[in-house]
């Protein structure tokens, strides 16, 4: 299965501000497109409320989940 995160993200690990655990962004974004879209909206909503879900593990700045315009393609046998 294809992970929806880019191969080499600008911020490879984030701090989950609810649990205090540092997580690789690939684990957070995962492989489920609908869940990734819901996560993106939740991250944005929480930032707008002033209570961000995730922050950069290195500097603590709140982070957003950005998206490429084109969905990743599935390998030819999985359409």
Description:
The protein has 79 residues and is of the alpha+beta class. 28% of the residues lie in helices and 13% in strands. The protein has 2 helices and 3 strands; from the N terminus they run ββααβ. The chain has helices spanning 25-29, 33-49, and strands at residues 13-16, 22-24, 54-56. A 3-stranded antiparallel β-sheet has the order 2-1-3.
DSSP summary, beta strand count: 3
Residues in β-strands, percent: 5-15%
Number of separate helices:
2
Please bin the fraction of helical residues.
25-40%
Major sheet: 3 strands, antiparallel
Round the Cα radius of gyration to an integer and report it: 13 Å
- Apparent shape: globular
Structural class: alpha+beta
Query: Segments where pLDDT lies below 50 for 5+ residues?
Result: 74-79
Following the backbone from N to C, one meets helices and strands in this order, namely EEHHE
Nearest-integer average pLDDT: 87
The CA-CA distance between the termini, in Å, is: 12 Å
Q: What is the strand arrangement across the widest sheet?
A: 2-1-3
How are the SSEs placed, and which strands pair?
Blueprint: E1 13-16, E2 22-24, H1 25-29, H2 33-49, E3 54-56
Antiparallel strand pairs: 1-2, 1-3
In short:
The chain has 79 residues and is an alpha+beta fold. Helix content is 28%, strand content 13%.
List its salient traits.
3 strands, alpha+beta, 28% helix
């Amino acid at each position: 299965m294809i992970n929806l995160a880019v191969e080499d993200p600008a911020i490879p690990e984030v701090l989950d501000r609810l649990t205090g655990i540092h997580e690789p962004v690939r684990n957070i974004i995962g492989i489920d497109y609908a869940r990734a879209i819901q996560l993106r909206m939740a991250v944005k909503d929480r930032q707008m409320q002033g209570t961000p879900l995730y922050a950069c593990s290195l500097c603590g700045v709140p982070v957003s989940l950005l998206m490429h315009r084109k969905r990743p393609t599935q390998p030819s046998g999985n359409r």
